[in-house]
Amino acid sequence: MLQFKLVLLGDSSVGKSSIVHRFVKDSFDEFRESTIGAAFLSQTIKIEDKGSQQEVVIKFEIWDTAGQERYKSLAPMYYRNANAALVVYDVTQQDSLAKAQGWVNELKTKVGEDDLVICLVGNKLDLCTEEGESSSKPKAVESSDAEGYANEQGLLFHEVSAKTGEGVKQVFQSIGEKLYEFKKHELANSKGRQGAGGDTVNVQLQRPSTNDATSCCG
Amino acid sequence: MYTTERRPSMAERRPTIVAMSAQSVVPHLAGIEDPLPDTTPEKVDVLIVGTGMVESVLAAALSWQGSSVLHIDRNDHYGDSSATLTVDQIKKWVNSVNQGLFSGCYDNAKLYVSTSIGNHNGKYASRDFGIDLAPKVLFAKSDLLSILVRSRVHQYLEFQSLSNFHTFENDNFEKLTNTKQEIFTDQKLPLMTKRNLMKFIKFVLNWEEQPEVWKPYADTPLCDLLVEKFRLEKAQVFELMFSIGLCYNMQTKTPEALQRIRRYLSSFDVYGPFSVLYSKYGGPGELSQGFCRSAAVGGATYKLNETLTSYDPNTKMALFGDGSQVYVTEKVVASPSQAPKDSRNIPNQKYEVHRLTCVVEKSCEQWFSEGESAAVIVFPPGSLKSGNVEVVQAFILGSGSEICPGGTSVWYLSTMQQGSRAEMDLDAALEAMEASLIRESSTDLEHDDSLVQFGPNGETLINSVRLGQSFKQYVPRERIQFLLKLYYTQYTSTPPFNVVDPSFFDINNIDGNGKLIPGASDNGVLYTAMPSGEISYDEVVTAVRVLYEKIVGSDDDFFDLDFEDEDEAPMNKADYENAIEDDEDVDMNVGRHESAEFVGEMEI
Ligand SMILES: Cc1cc2nc3c(=O)[nH]c(=O)nc-3n(C[C@H](O)[C@H](O)[C@H](O)COP(=O)(O)OP(=O)(O)OC[C@H]3O[C@@H](n4cnc5c(N)ncnc54)[C@H](O)[C@@H]3O)c2cc1C
Ligand SMILES: Nc1nc2c(ncn2[C@@H]2O[C@H](COP(=O)(O)OP(=O)(O)OP(=O)(O)O)[C@@H](O)[C@H]2O)c(=O)[nH]1
Ligand SMILES: [Mg+2]
């Protein structure tokens, strides 16, 4: 199983957490509180290897912002080793695309990985559909504007609704496929290459090997 | 607009003193239909200034307890006096030190950076490096580790083991024999010494219960007890006191030294055959970020690039550099390194810690155990050319720790020696390390079997014993390439071996009998202690607990977190794919709790 770290970015209340909750738990909550939940969630998807027709399982480890984005105070730890980023804006908020663009720039300077997959996501599409309720809002961000920008910057682009679930699965599916493409390439290239110090072993703190701390010398 | 109400936050839902008084406002939960103002919240329970290790753990403890916390830092990065910095950030920091921006906390910073770092065409980038200002190691059985697990902050971090402790003696590096097995198989140890050593190790594991052995030595240095009672030789005494105990000098008193020796031994084999861990990508700087994130999960608000200008304990208003202000219902806590201008209440930071940090263009793998990327080298009193009285400790990290690129390593040297001779000691230690590295890595020597492969008794020399071979007549052809060299003096109010004394925090306690200093911008501010020279994290939790108790009134619910998912039943297979990360841990909660509890009760 391949595992990827995915981070969420975008201004407050654009629906970052809602998108994740739709994806992970397939639920939506009108009264979602501003994220204090660091939401360190995970979810797996299956994609198909185009060559071998084999199924590949991909696991996303999803990091939500825990509200630290409010004053642009995200820690390097948040970005570190991220394989993918969802940059979210609200299609009913005029200025939220500009802000998303700011986050894309931030991301490019902070992560600077060539193989980081960035996906621009316009959320709350349900608010602008004709058959919506009286609360229906005009679409403030044109799809073509956002898509044009995404193409220019080499980003994936999707419009979704966390509320109805429309488009949410596809976001992660397309990110998964793109990451797999990279990964395949990388795996083929890195055959036999031993990363410097890459064989240092991590210790899992939640897994003590024994509680008998004196066994060495008792 | 489809909602004007939000669910109560974690902070609001937790029944606490603050919440019950119904005064707590969780600032950023303001109605979502209003765009959030780009100013600081108007009212908080606690304002914390500086995101160093102690402040960050405190922020997490308080926000999980239910207090609303505003946590600011004047830098554009987390960590403050325990930050992990890139080379460019180090340059900036050195400038600030030399401009006196941290008066009383740091001085005498000297920096050399090779042209191979940065400069567009340099071999390395500034951000290939993560240099800690106050590097630390983590004992496997310690209260900080228990809190890392309990708060789940460890999930944001990665840890690696460090098992190689070398003692430098007679121009040689001796590797620590720290297990029963190693003691028995060590061919160089006479049988009698082995027996005495085992006797001591048995004793030290529950030394408090045998006052008849140590009480007569309670006020004398430990070496007296070791020599007179346990008949140990100098080599073992040094190993016990300085490599295992990580004491700073020969005068270390019996109880303190015993405590420290036991700390090492009881940490052994908790996670494997080693006692000490360190975090990948950086030490306290990384842990600070983790605790800040946890605090944010608990509801704290974060704002970097923000300075505290002043606090008035009468109006309870704190003013910030950007002109905003906040009403603080409980306390303002600040690191001395981020004290407001015109502060008059900073406690005296009278103890010096001298540090020398180098980035070396050598992997230093030969100093590490297999599968590891770190080592500690201790230079006991009198072992250096400089005739050092205090120990010099060197903490070496290789590229496996991801704080430096492949083929390089970072050497953190420090000493508690006060005054100007400290730098001579640091230089002497550096020279000894450099010399041994040159001998060790020289290609000439590698081809000469008679020199390297066998010791005087015919035993194969492995690992650090090999690196220590003394070839006084050997003239090195190549010199070690230094990519960075940084000297600085750091000041702290924490004396060696002592953790923060609670009375320390009364100095500026206006609620008590303290008085306001007219014109001071920091009356009523509670100052934290700067990191001490202690190589482990041991002081941190005690310091936080003391502050926590000052603010909350008791430490009963200190990191008493009941994650709601912990009592959920494990899911069935079908649900498994949709499981949130934490649920995967459910079935091991029992074991984890036990160990966390166990660790939590350990005293420093
Ligand atoms: C919009 C939103 C609403 C949420 N509402 C709730 C809620 O009503 N109840 C709930 O238990 N969790 C809530 N959470 C928290 C969320 O479920 C956790 O962040 C998630 O379980 C991931 O936990 P973790 O352990 O991987 O995260 P970590 O960052 O590793 O740890 C956080 C832990 O703290 C706990 N936690 C985090 N935030 C809250 C919170 N707001 N209230 C209570 N506990 C929290 C969770 O049990 C979680 O395990 C909410 C999160 C979001 C984004
Ligand atoms: N109608 C509609 N509302 C949505 C949608 N997605 C999110 N919302 C609502 O928008 C609000 C904000 O959503 P969140 O998911 O908390 O937004 P966020 O970006 O995580 O916000 P912060 O955590 O504050 O950064 C909530 O009230 C959601 O119910 C959507 O697709 N349609
Ligand atoms: Mg959110």
Automatic annotation (TrEMBL), chain A:
Major place of residence: membrane
One Pfam match: Ras
Which GO BP terms apply?
Answer: endocytosis; endosomal vesicle fusion; Golgi to endosome transport; late endosome to vacuole transport via multivesicular body sorting pathway; multivesicular body assembly; protein localization to endosome; protein targeting to vacuole
UniProt keywords, alphabetically: Cell membrane, GTP-binding, Lipoprotein, Membrane, Nucleotide-binding, Prenylation, Protein transport, Repeat, Transport
Give the protein family.
Answer: Belongs to the small GTPase superfamily. Rab family.
Residue ranges constituting the Roc domain according to the UniProt record: 1-182
Q: Where is the signal peptide?
A: none
Q: Which GO terms describe its molecular function?
A: GTP binding; GTPase activity
Q: What GO cellular-component annotations does this UniProt entry give? A: cytosol; early endosome membrane; late endosome; plasma membrane
Q: How does it sit in the membrane?
A: Lipid-anchor
Q: What is this protein called?
A: Roc domain-containing protein
The parts of the chain that form a coiled coil are: none
TrEMBL record, chain B:
Family matches, as InterPro entries:
FAD/NAD-bd_sf (IPR036188), GDP_dissociation_inhibitor (IPR018203), Mrs6 (IPR017230)
Gene3D superfamilies listed in its UniProt record: FAD/NAD(P)-binding domain, Guanine Nucleotide Dissociation Inhibitor, domain 1, Guanine Nucleotide Dissociation Inhibitor, domain 2
Question: Which GO MF terms does the UniProt record name?
Answer: GDP-dissociation inhibitor activity
Instruction: Supply one GO CC term from the record.
Output: nucleus
Would you say which domain of life the source belongs to? Answer: Eukaryota
GO BP terms: namely:
small GTPase-mediated signal transduction; vesicle-mediated transport
Q: Which Pfam families match?
A: GDI (PF00996)
> What's the family?
Belongs to the Rab GDI family.
What function does the entry list? Substrate-binding subunit (component A) of the Rab geranylgeranyltransferase (GGTase) complex. Binds unprenylated Rab proteins and presents the substrate peptide to the catalytic component B. The component A is thought to be regenerated by transferring its prenylated Rab back to the donor membrane.
- Provide the protein name: Rab proteins geranylgeranyltransferase component A
